[in-house]
Amino acid sequence: MRLASKIFLTSAVLVVVLAVVGLVSLYAVARLATVNREITTQAVPIVRLVSSLRDAMRALSRLEGRYIILRDPLYATLWDETAARVEVDLVQVQAAVTTQSQRAATAEAIFAFEQYRELVAEERALLARGNRQQALRLYDTEGPVRADRVDGMLERLARETDVAVKAALAEATRLEARTWTWVMTSLGMAVVLALAGSGVVAFRLTRSLRRLSVATRALAEGSFSVPITIRDKDEVGELARSFNVMAQQLRQIDDMKEEFFATISHDLKSPLGSIAEAAYLLRDGVAGSLTPRQARLMSIINASTDRILGLVNRLLHLSRLRAGMLPLECRPVNLAVVAERAVEELRPQAEAGEVTLEHHRVGDDFVVEGDEARLGEVVINLGVNAIQFTPKGGVVRVRVTDAGSEVTLEVEDTGIGIPAAALPGIFERYQQARRDRGGSGLGLAIVRGVVEAHGGRVAVESADGKGTRFTVTLPRVADPR
If 0-12 CB within 10 Å is exposed, 13-18 middle and 19+ buried, where does residue 219 land? Predict the structure, then answer.
């Protein structure tokens, strides 16, 4: 056999072996990418929806009971809105499930929810006829049974989804083991035939895997922030893209923690409101007269409850801002009038702190497109901060200026100022320039969120010990012509 023939034969065998290795590897990588994509695009949304549905069912049970007991139409409205969202989510789950067992569990959950809605409708009908005791009996006996049946079906759906995910992961594990077996065997044969060729193939194959390995290590250490640069358009590149998607979803999980915090705050709001209302009723003597000491203790309870409710409301407000879900009722609003009302609201606090509160207008036209209540919150938050950090005898000025195509609102004080080191993060959540003065660190974050939601911007100028000036700039109302 001639040398050329040997080289040709060796090269041919090497090409065949490498072709087999390449085909098997690409197929396995494609399958792994497909399995990972199915998990990330199907299973994760289903789990989120099921978790949201179970939370919503608990909320529906609470609203059902409150409406029957208190007969407040607001609870009925809230129940109807929540039930509508549940129905939409169930339809989404039904469209997303893939296995027969998931479909069956989803169908049973939908049927159980319809039964629960029929029960609530029956309770309302009884209340409308004045048969409150019968409605309460249904709520106490049949209501929990039907709500638990829906929850049980949702729990079953979650289990079926978990089974599907585990099956997909098991398939990925088998594919991975099979891939390594084929690759190692074929590479061994290729090394015997031609070390040089095998080295080239191994280098090209491991280059992208090395990049993924480095990115994986960075992700494990919590320092992975920049997506992998994808140069390849093959299955390895697809795997890298799937990795980028996974990293993005891990960051989304971090956002889910914020959502969970907001949910907890929302659930605290109702019982805290009940406590506050009960405390006010006791203080006002509805349940009987109080001794001076009891009245003082009730005042302490009222003040503490109001502070906690204020914090919870600010947390909910900030969560809606971060999620872009803050409802705005925009219409032409005179910012000068809004600022004047806020100043009058702040005046008792300023007088208590012996601070002079001034309101000025510069120009004639102060109309902007915005939500009057939200813009009032901006002025209140900035004004409260200014008064809080201004010593006795100081001055707080609220100035609204007609700036042509924009309207500016300035809140300036002669207070203690903000340290230079604290200025860059002053609008971030939970950041406080001076922690010894109390506060939650949420007010300025809410100000920035509301202003940006109106298409405006907010800036701060301050020198430690020389006062602070916050400037809010809002676009002029659009010309109706």
Answer: middle
Number of C-beta neighbours around residue 392 at 10 A:
7
In angstroms, the Cα distances linking 425 to 27, 315, 432, 433 are 49, 18, 9, 9
Give yes or no for a contact between 463 and 433, defined as CB atoms under 8 angstroms apart. no
Looking up tokens 């939500």, which residue turns up?
Answer: 371
Amino acid in the structure at residue 458:
V
Cβ neighbours around 205 below 10 Å, total: 16
Q: Count of residues for the chain?
A: 481
Confirm if 339 and 359 have CB atoms less than 8 A apart: yes
Q: Which of 157, 142, 175, 147 is nearest to 25 (CA)?
A: 175
Do the beta carbons of residue 445 and residue 377 sit within 8 Å? no
Cβ neighbours, 10 Å, residue 105 = 24
CA dist., res. 413 & res. 469, Å (int): 7
User: From CA 91, how far away is CA 106, in angstroms rounded?
Assistant: 9
> One digit per residue, pLDDT tens: the chain, 481 residues?
433 444 455 566 667 766 766 676 666 666 666 766 666 666 677 778 888 888 888 888 888 888 888 888 888 888 889 889 888 888 888 888 888 888 888 888 888 889 888 888 888 888 888 888 888 888 888 888 888 888 888 888 888 877 777 777 777 777 777 777 777 776 677 666 666 555 544 565 566 667 777 777 766 654 556 676 766 665 666 777 777 777 777 666 555 555 555 455 555 555 655 666 666 666 666 666 767 777 777 677 766 666 565 555 555 555 555 555 556 778 899 999 999 998 998 898 899 889 999 999 998 889 998 888 888 888 888 888 888 888 888 999 999 999 888 999 999 998 888 887 777 767 776 555 555 454 455 667 778 878 888 889 888 888 877 889 999 999 986 554 3
Report the C-alpha dihedral over residues 15, 21, 27, 31, rounded to 10 degrees. Answer: -160
Output the DSSP codes for 247-303. Answer: HHHHHHHHHHHHHHHHHHHHHHHHHHHHHHHHHHHHHTTTTS---HHHHHHHHHHHH
- In this structure, what are the phi and psi dihedrals at residue 397, rounded to the nearest 5 degrees? -115, 130
Q: What is the pTM of this model?
A: 0.40
Burial 365-377 (b: 16+ CB within 10 A, else e): ebebbbbbebbbb
